[in-house]
Structure formats: C-alpha cells, structure tokens
C-alpha cells in the first residue's frame, strides 16, 4: 500500500492489461509454433494463465487503502443524498454554522484574552504586592516608599521587587501642552515585568538617582498617536515639572496595565515621590509594587513570608500598623488581575453558546431521525443486499459529518466577523482585548467542534438506522416496527432540548432582570444635559492654593454666563465615575464615643463647589448648600449625605453638629450645614457610601472636573467652554469631555451586551425547541392517524383526542422542565457575580420563565393536536 | 509451489538478464524440466510486489517478437536479497532432507 500507487491505480491497471495481453500473445504464438491450431492455442493460453480479471482485481485491491476508499465512497454518496435534499442540507448547515460560529467567536475572545500568554517574559512568576486593611475595607492600602524598601530587602520569596505609581503631569514641547498619564517606576520595573524596548533602551537602575539626568520612555500607543511612530524620537527632549527630560526608549505594545500610561519616568523624576518628606514617611502610602517569585515559590508562600515581615514591621513601628486597622500584605498573580473581570463573562457566554449548539445538534438529530424513518425501507433494502450495520452507520455518520464540516467552514466566517464585534465588549473588561484574532488554535477549535457536532447529531440516527429490521420491507403496514426506538429517542431529545432551553432562558431572564434593575437605579441626580470635563492643573504652575482657587473661580464665572448654561460647578470627581473607588478617611464625630482599639469611622469625602447639587439636581434635605461666603478664612463647614446623617445622627438634626479630621495635633473641626440626598458616586451598581462634602476654597483642590448643566444638548457647548478654559490658561489641557448620560450608558454597556447575547442565545434556543416539540408531535400524530381514526370510529370525542395528543406532546416538555429546574439551580449560580439587585434563585423570574416556556410549548403542540382531532376515521382507515 | 519460493525463483531468473513476465515463466518451467508450472496469473502480483520492495525495477522495451513489453531488472537490493534467500533455502532443504533420511522407494503419498 502506498499513496503513490493509490492515486496511480488507473494507469497501473492499464499497464497490467498490456502486460497480460503480451503474455497471452507470446503464449499463443508459442502454442501455434508447436503446431496447435490457433483457436485451441488461444484456449490453452487462457487456461494456463487463469483469469486476467482476477489478477487485475488483486492488483487493484493491493493498491487501495480500504478505509479511505470507503470514506470516499461514503462522502460521494452523502453528497448525492444532500444534493437531493437541498432544503434540509441548507437548513442543517446554516443551523450548525451559526452555532459553531457563535462558539468559535467567543472562543476567539477566550483564546486572545485567557489562553494567550501575557507579553511579559516573567508572566507566570509576576505578582502584584500590596497592603490591605481588613477593618477599613476591601480596597488595597498601597505602600509607602519605606515599606517598598523593607519588602525588597527583607523578603525571602522574590527574586526582584519593583515600585510603581501613576501620576498625570504636563508635558511641554509637543504640539500642544499636554497632560500625560505617567507611570513612575523604579529602575528595575521593566526587567521585573520582563519587557524589552522597541526602540532605544529601558529605564535602568542608574536612571533612578538624584543626580542622573531625567529620562522618559514612551508607551507604544502614545508614540504612535503623538509622534506617528517617528523612529527618530530617541534623544528628543520635553519639559516636565520644570525639568528637561530626554526620551531614551519606546516600549513595545503592551496591555494597559497597571494603567494606560503615556510615558514612564524613574521615581527620582517625580516631584512628589522624590520629596524627602515622602521618602521618610512610613504612613505616606502612595505607591504599589510588582515582584517576580523565585522559582518554585507559590503565591501562598509569598503571602505568608510577607505576613511575617509585616508583623516584624508592626512590632518595630506600632504607630504605622495599628492593630485596629488589620494591615496585612496581599499578593495577587498579575495574570489573574488582568483577566479576572473577563473570565466569568466569557466562560458563561461560551457555556451558553455551547448549549445552543447542543440544542441545534439535538434538533438536527431529531430531523435526521424522522428522515431515517422515511428511509428505513431503503436501509432495509441495503441491508438485505449485504450491507452491514457498520456500513449503514458509517454511511449516515459521514452524512452528518459532511454537514457539520460545511457548518464549520461557515462558522469560521461568522467567527471572524463576530469576534471583531466582541473586541470592544471585551475591552471593557480586560486590557488584553488587542490580542483577539482568529489564529491556528481557533481554526483547530472550529474543526474539533464541527467534528463533535457531526458526531453528536449523527450517532443517534445512525444507530437507529443500523438497527432497522428486514421486516420493514414487508408491506404489512409494520412501519412502526423499526421506529419505536426512533419515537422514544425523539421524546428524549425533546425533553433534553426543553431542559437546555429552560436553563438558557432562565439565565437570560436573570440577566435582563438585572439589567432592568440597573436601568432603574436612581443615581441620586438628574443625568440628562450635564456636561463634564476634567481639568487637572499643572502642579508646578498652580503650586499655591490661591492660584488654583483663582483658576476655578474664573472658569466658573465665565462659563456660568454663557447662553444655554443653567449652572456650573467644579468637583473633585465626576459622579458615576467607576474608574475610582471611595477615598475614605477617618473622621472624628463630635459626641460619638472613640474606642482606642478601633479605627475612626471611615467616611468618603468629596470636594464640590456651591452650585454642585443644583447642577446635578440633587435635592438638599436639610440646611443650606455651600455659599460663596464659605471661603478659605471663613469657619469650616461641611455637608453630609443622607446615609451619613442617618448612620451617625439617627433621630437627630445633624445641622450644627461638628466633625473633625486630621491628626490630633492639627485637628480642625467643621460644622455640618446641610444634608443632601445620596448620590451614586462610583457607579450605578455601587451603593452610595457615607460621604462628607467640602467646599473647594476650604479644602483646596488641584485636580477637578467642571460640570455644566445646559438647556440644550450639552456637547453643543463643549467647544465654547474649552475655548474659555484656554482663554484663562492657554496651557491648560481639557480632557474627558463627556456628558453624564454618556458615562451612565457606558456603565450599562457591558451588562447590556451580556444580556443581549444571552437573550439572543435563549431566543434561538426557544425557537429550536418549539420547532422540535411540535415537529415531533406532528410526526407522531401522522404515524398514529390510523389509531386515532379507530378511536374516533369507536366513539372517542374530538376533545378526548385533543387532550390525549396534547398530554403526549407535553409530557416530554414537563419532564424537560423538571430536569431544567434542577440544572438551573446549579447553572444560575455562576451568574451570581454578574447580577445586580437580584438573586440567582429569584423565584419570580424562575416561575415567569417556566410559564413562558410551557405556554409556548402548548402553542407548539396545539397545531398537531388540532390536526389529530380533525382526522377523518374513514380516510385514516382506508389509506393504511 | 512453496510460499515465497516463487519470489526467489523470479529473482534468480533475472540474474541472467532483464526479462518480461512471459520469459520469466518460461525460464522457470524449462529449467525445472517442466516440473514447476508457474501459475501464470500469480506471476504478475509477485512481480509487482518485488517492484514495491525495490528488489526489481521495470522499464518498457520490445520483446523478441517485436511486441511492446514491460521488462524487469534485478536491482542491487534484489541481488542481495537473492543471496540471503538462497542460503536460507539451502539450509531449509538440507534440514528437510535430514529429517526425511532414506526414503522407502514406494512408500508414502508422494
């Protein structure tokens, strides 16, 4: 057996014929020469040679590859069968193509985000190290410069530890003055990550010294965007923080982690980080750290080593680690930090699309089964003529595999388009979305899935067909003999279809319910017609609080008088801003007992200008808003939110009460002058926290956002407002110009897309299932028409028949529902983290979905049931 | 005919020079004093098998009677194979002869 011979069988046979002919001719010649008459000579030659055909057959078989032969024959036959049923072939290929396509598209995302290695050389060992404070909340505490040094010098588990924090600085020397997101890193930061520069060199240890000339590295995205990928950028200088910085390198494209930074500088270039006071202050926690684990060290070992280290520090510096705060180290794998948000969503979507594909397979198996019953005669004939069970089985399996592979080809196309649509969606959850594209692994997945789908829907009909009995050849109306198995199988298929679609519908229902909850969340203010823009001031220019105060005053004055502006305010942050978490601080509340062992009440704080609540349309519940008279030298005042008031002054009037901040020495008391209703500052899905509001003049504010309520479309005024800002300070960048409505819908985007996708899958599932339910019942009615005819002839009423058929049709549905509710109890639990305002076992959703599914199933059964009731006994009895 | 001996005899025949199928059959019959009658049909599968193993090669030529014929030629590998088969055959023949010893002149079936 050889491939060469296999494909040369025809010419080889021709040669063999020639050889045989020559042989016979020579033999005849010899015989003739011996004096035998020609006819007898020829006869003797043939007798001596034996059968030439047999020799040729032998050679042919020798040159064949038997399984391949069978396969090719099966494929040709399957192709002919499908060509004869183009409708079925089209429907089946389309169904599977959509199913496989959806799965492959989602797998493409998973492949790009979860399976692809991170672009860091040390990805597997890379960990993020921070401190947490169990008593103060779940958010990390960050580290002080002292702590980073201690961790670096005293740990036993890391081969290296790097420091990082993010700032925004103004960069001068580009086209326009620009606020650049800056990563401030220690000299070993990039070697810890395991990153090589695209151009130039990395920031190295020698750059991190007070005497070294300031250097910058550009991120790939910033280099592309601002400098069009100019390769001569190395050596160019820019002014930042009143110092000249030289570009020494450009980074390769990396995920936007830990932040989407434009440039990187060594710690010594950051005026805040390098200030001697910062370096000396063990409590000044403003940086974080990244480390590489030594080979063989686990995350848990690292954590316990650092815990021991922290305990030693706590003994040494009890003031910095009060027992009441519960400070502990926290290490987390960078890999999981990058992917944890996207992982559940996409695994759930893959699960859902997998179920839809399974459903599609069940449905195709169902259709194939009914085709099989029609073809049982053909199968019986083939069996009678010598085909084995395996022959029939493999024949039918080839047919379904052929369909599935065609579906797989279609699926690749769908996946290529679908995954492109999913990139934006994935980008909301992970910074690794750039890596999403169809590659070899995706193609392999598609192929594997196609084969699996082909097997899934081909095995059952193949099995049923191969068990066909020869009795179905006799004309005695025994058509049901071979198909009793078929009908039972179909009922099982229907029940499992109902199970799957119930689970999918329930998941979709929960997501939609959760989305509805999110949509109806009251953020605590009127979101319409409010424009926001970020004005982060250049700290070197606005070092004194008077200058920043003057800037904001001037901006507000000029913007307020613009036509179309109903009010303007500045605040430290834009509400609904999910990029940030609460900035809690310990607050002393007058009249509340202080326990020395417990931390002070941790209250979120915000800085807002007098018109803030009016601009947002947030009602003031008591007292007064901030006034222009709440100036820097006036008595300090604060406004508290409703939640704060209820918690600390229940049944009391908080107006006039006092709160204090800061250390014991410089403690300043401020009087509560107003109570405002709650605002969701950090996202629609985050409950409002207890908050204290300060007036900007009294608190000092260097980074703020301008909020403007307009009478018309807010974006309409954006350009005008920007112009005003540039009139006040031509070097002041204006960033993140958005309406609050845009911020709100961006937050709804992810749950909305998830809900839409799940609902789409569920709708397809419902449709497929109902087609399956009613199709199966219709077939069984057609099959039973004789029996029904007899019943009617014997006096059964139409109602009896209708009820009987409906019961039969709904039985698998009810079984499916029962199994579905069991399965759903487990399946919906994985959704828990993605739901808002609803429990995964919400009974109302559960009941609503069950009723919906049952109602649709009844509708689907009604058509065949009515047909059964209309059976004319005379016709039914005569036709069979 | 004993299994495997046909291959050996074909190879042996080809030592004398290239030959086509009919000649090979004739040579075997003639040299065995018509004792071995090659089942002519089985000759061709055997030839193809030997060709697959690269013990013989084939080329088209013209027969003595001026017909287009496929000639087979012993390859170097085939020659080596023939040597080893021959010695194995000799050992086998000797062994069988030893077992059989002196044969009664009119005894047995054969």
Automatic annotation (TrEMBL), chain A:
<dbReference type="InterPro" id="IPR047928">
    <property type="entry name" value="Perm_prefix_1"/>
</dbReference>
<comment type="similarity">
    <text>Belongs to the ABC-4 integral membrane protein family.</text>
</comment>
<protein>
    <submittedName>
        <fullName>ABC transporter permease</fullName>
    </submittedName>
</protein>
<keyword id="KW-0812">Transmembrane</keyword>
<keyword id="KW-1003">Cell membrane</keyword>
<dbReference type="GO" id="GO:0022857">
    <property type="term" value="F:transmembrane transporter activity"/>
</dbReference>
<dbReference type="GO" id="GO:0005886">
    <property type="term" value="C:plasma membrane"/>
</dbReference>
<dbReference type="InterPro" id="IPR025857">
    <property type="entry name" value="MacB_PCD"/>
</dbReference>
<feature type="transmembrane region" description="Helical">
    <location>
        <begin position="810"/>
        <end position="832"/>
    </location>
</feature>
<feature type="domain" description="ABC3 transporter permease C-terminal">
    <location>
        <begin position="352"/>
        <end position="467"/>
    </location>
</feature>
<feature type="transmembrane region" description="Helical">
    <location>
        <begin position="492"/>
        <end position="516"/>
    </location>
</feature>
<keyword id="KW-1133">Transmembrane helix</keyword>
<dbReference type="InterPro" id="IPR017800">
    <property type="entry name" value="ADOP"/>
</dbReference>
<feature type="transmembrane region" description="Helical">
    <location>
        <begin position="844"/>
        <end position="865"/>
    </location>
</feature>
<feature type="transmembrane region" description="Helical">
    <location>
        <begin position="401"/>
        <end position="423"/>
    </location>
</feature>
<feature type="transmembrane region" description="Helical">
    <location>
        <begin position="756"/>
        <end position="782"/>
    </location>
</feature>
<feature type="domain" description="MacB-like periplasmic core">
    <location>
        <begin position="573"/>
        <end position="695"/>
    </location>
</feature>
<dbReference type="Pfam" id="PF02687">
    <property type="entry name" value="FtsX"/>
</dbReference>
<feature type="domain" description="MacB-like periplasmic core">
    <location>
        <begin position="90"/>
        <end position="308"/>
    </location>
</feature>
<dbReference type="Pfam" id="PF12704">
    <property type="entry name" value="MacB_PCD"/>
</dbReference>
<keyword id="KW-0472">Membrane</keyword>
<feature type="transmembrane region" description="Helical">
    <location>
        <begin position="443"/>
        <end position="464"/>
    </location>
</feature>
From TrEMBL, chain B:
<protein>
    <submittedName>
        <fullName>PadR family transcriptional regulator</fullName>
    </submittedName>
</protein>
<dbReference type="Pfam" id="PF03551">
    <property type="entry name" value="PadR"/>
</dbReference>
<dbReference type="InterPro" id="IPR005149">
    <property type="entry name" value="Tscrpt_reg_PadR_N"/>
</dbReference>
<dbReference type="InterPro" id="IPR017799">
    <property type="entry name" value="Tscrpt_reg_PadR_acidobac-type"/>
</dbReference>
<feature type="domain" description="Transcription regulator PadR N-terminal">
    <location>
        <begin position="10"/>
        <end position="83"/>
    </location>
</feature>
<dbReference type="InterPro" id="IPR036388">
    <property type="entry name" value="WH-like_DNA-bd_sf"/>
</dbReference>
<dbReference type="InterPro" id="IPR036390">
    <property type="entry name" value="WH_DNA-bd_sf"/>
</dbReference>
<dbReference type="InterPro" id="IPR052509">
    <property type="entry name" value="Metal_resp_DNA-bind_regulator"/>
</dbReference>
């Amino acid at each position: 057996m050889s491939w060469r011979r296999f494909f040369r069988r025809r010419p080889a046979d021709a040669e063999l014929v020639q050889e045989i002919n020559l042989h016979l001719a020579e033999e005849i010649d010899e015989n003739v020469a011996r004096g035998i008459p020609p006819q007898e000579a020829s006869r003797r030659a043939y007798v001596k040679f034996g059968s030439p055909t047999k020799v040729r057959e032998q050679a042919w078989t020798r040159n064949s590859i038997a399984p391949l032969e069978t396969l090719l024959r099966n494929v040709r036959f399957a192709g002919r069968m499908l060509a004869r049923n183009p409708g079925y072939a089209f429907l089946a290929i389309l169904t599977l193509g959509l199913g496989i396509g959806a799965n492959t598209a989602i797998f493409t995302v998973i492949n790009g985000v979860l399976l692809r290695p991170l672009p860091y050389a040390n990805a597997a060992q890379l960990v993020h190290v921070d401190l947490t404070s169990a008593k103060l909340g779940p958010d990390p505490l960050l580290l002080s410069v002292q702590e980073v040094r201690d961790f670096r010098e005293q740990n036993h588990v890391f081969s290296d530890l790097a420091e990082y924090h993010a700032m925004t600085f103004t960069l001068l020397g580009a086209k326009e003055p620009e606020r650049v997101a800056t990563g401030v890193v220690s000299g070993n930061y990039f070697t810890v990550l395991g990153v090589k520069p695209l151009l130039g060199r990395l920031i190295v240890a020698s750059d991190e010294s007070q005497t070294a000339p300031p250097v910058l590295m550009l991120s790939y995205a910033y280099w592309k965007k601002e400098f069009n990928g100019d390769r001569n950028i190395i050596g160019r200088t820019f002014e930042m923080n009143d110092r000249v910085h030289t570009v020494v390198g450009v980074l390769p494209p990396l995920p936007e982690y830990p932040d989407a930074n434009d440039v990187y500088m060594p710690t010594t270039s950051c005026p805040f980080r390098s200030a001697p006071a910062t370096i000396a202050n063990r409590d000044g926690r403003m940086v974080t750290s990244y480390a590489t684990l030594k080979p063989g060290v686990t995350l848990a070992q690292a954590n316990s080593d650092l815990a021991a280290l922290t305990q030693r520090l706590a003994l040494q510096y009890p003031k910095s680690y009060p027992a009441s705060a519960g400070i502990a180290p926290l290490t987390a794998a960078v890999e999981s930090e990058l992917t944890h948000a996207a992982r559940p969503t996409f695994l759930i979507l893959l699960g859902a699309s997998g179920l839809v594909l399974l459903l599609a397979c069940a449905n195709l198996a169902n259709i194939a089964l009914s085709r099989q019953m029609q073809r049982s005669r053909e199968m019986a004939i083939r069996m009678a003529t010598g085909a084995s069970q395996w022959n029939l089985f493999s024949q039918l399996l080839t047919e379904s595999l052929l369909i599935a592979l065609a579906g797989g080809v279609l699926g690749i196309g769908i996946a290529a388009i679908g995954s492109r649509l999913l990139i934006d969606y994935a980008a909301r959850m992970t910074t690794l979305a750039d890596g999403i594209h169809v590659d070899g692994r995706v193609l392999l997945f598609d192929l594997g899935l196609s084969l699996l789908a082909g097997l899934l829907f081909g095995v059952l009909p193949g099995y049923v067909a191969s068990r066909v009995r020869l009795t179905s050849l006799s004309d005695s109306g025994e058509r049901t003999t071979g198909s009793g198995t078929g009908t039972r199988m179909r009922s099982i298929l229907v029940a499992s279809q109902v199970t799957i679609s119930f689970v999918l519908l329930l998941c979709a229902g929960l997501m939609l319910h959760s989305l509805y909850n999110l949509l109806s969340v009251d953020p605590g203010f009127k979101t319409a017609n409010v424009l926001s823009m970020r004005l982060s001031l250049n700290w070197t220019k606005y070092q004194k609080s008077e200058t920043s105060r003057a800037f904001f005053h001037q901006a507000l004055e000029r913007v307020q008088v613009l036509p179309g502006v109903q009010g303007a305010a500045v605040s430290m942050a834009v509400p609904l801003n999910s990029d940030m978490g609460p900035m809690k601080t310990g607050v002393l509340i007058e009249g509340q007992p202080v326990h020395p062992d417990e931390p002070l009440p941790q209250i979120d704080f915000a800085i807002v200008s007098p018109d803030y609540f009016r601009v947002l349309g947030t009602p003031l519940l008591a007292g007064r808003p901030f006034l222009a008279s709440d100036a820097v030298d006036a008595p300090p005042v604060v406004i508290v939110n409703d939640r704060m008031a209820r918690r600390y002054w229940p049944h009391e009037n908080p107006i006039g009460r006092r709160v204090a901040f800061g250390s014991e020495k410089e403690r300043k008391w401020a009087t509560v002058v107003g109570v405002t209703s709650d605002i969701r500052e950090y996202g629609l899905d985050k409950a409002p926290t207890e908050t204290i509001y300060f007036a900007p003049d009294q608190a000092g504010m260097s980074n703020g956002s301008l909020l403007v309520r307009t009478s018309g479309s807010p974006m309409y005024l954006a350009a005008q407002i920007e112009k005003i800002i540039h009139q006040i300070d031509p070097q002041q960048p204006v960033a993140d110009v958005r309406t609050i409505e845009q911020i709100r819908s961006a937050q709804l985007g992810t749950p909305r897309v998830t809900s839409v996708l799940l609902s789409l899958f569920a709708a397809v599932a419902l449709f497929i299932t109902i087609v399956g339910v009613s199709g199966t019942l219709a077939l069984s009615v057609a099959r039973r028409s004789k029996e029904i005819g007899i019943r009617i002839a014997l006096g059964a009423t139409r109602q009896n028949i209708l009820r009987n058929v409906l019961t039969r049709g709904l039985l698998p549905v009810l079984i499916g529902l029962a199994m579905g509710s069991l399965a759903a109890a487990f399946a919906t639990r994985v959704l828990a983290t993605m739901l808002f305002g609803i429990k995964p076992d919400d009974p109302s959703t559960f009941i609503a979905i069950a009723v919906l599914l049952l109602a649709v199933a009844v509708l689907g059964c009604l058509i065949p049931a009515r047909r059964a009731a209309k059976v004319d006994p005379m016709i039914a009895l005569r036709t069979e | 005919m004993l299994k495997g001996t046909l291959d050996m005899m074909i190879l042996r025949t080809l030592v004398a020079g290239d030959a086509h199928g009919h000649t090979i059959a004739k040579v075997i019959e003639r040299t065995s004093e018509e004792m071995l009658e090659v089942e002519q049909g089985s000759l061709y599968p055997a030839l193809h098998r030997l060709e697959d193993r690269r013990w013989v090669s084939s080329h088209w030529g013209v027969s003595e009677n001026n017909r287009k014929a496929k000639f087979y030629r012993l390859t170097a590998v085939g020659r080596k194979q023939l040597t080893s088969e021959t010695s194995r055959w000799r050992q086998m023949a000797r062994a069988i002869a030893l077992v059989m010893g002196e044969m009664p002149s009119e005894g047995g079936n054969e």
